Amino acid sequence: MAVSAIERGTEWLARGGLRPTRQRLALAALLVGDGEDRHVTAESLFALADRTGERVSLATVYNTLRAFCEAGLMNEVVVDGSKSYFDTRMDDHPHFYWEDSGRLTDAPAEELRIAGLPEAPEGMQVSRVDVVIRLKRA
């Protein structure tokens, strides 16, 4: 029997310890319902929800994406300091940012080499390193 988008969304929310409210479940199903990883902005997820008939405000989408991040279900990738993408793929991996289209995609992690990182300030530890490789037409 095939796993439905709602079932996948429900399991995903449970992994993060989140209560499956109607809005959370609807957005979770859109994000992970087909089993594929996603890079979305709040605006693109809001538009997708609208196209599928889900009634949810843009503010709710923002708040829900933040809750998903806090629960460890997604990572926020900030591009240009003002544009945030939300990634459902949780392993360490770099990204390509396509400047001409504004898309964010996964880059091949096996080709990335980081020789070292600076020492974290006293009392701090590195929690994550985000690598965004910006692309433009030659």
UniProtKB/TrEMBL annotation:
Keywords: Cytoplasm, DNA-binding, Iron, Metal-binding, Repressor, Transcription, Transcription regulation, Zinc. The keyword Ribosomal protein does not apply. Its main location: cytoplasm. Pfam families: FUR. It is found in: Cytoplasm. This is Ferric uptake regulation protein. It comes from the Bacteria. The keyword Zinc applies. Belongs to the Fur family. It comes from Paragemmobacter amnigenus. PANTHER family: FERRIC UPTAKE REGULATION PROTEIN, ZINC UPTAKE REGULATION PROTEIN. Homodimer.
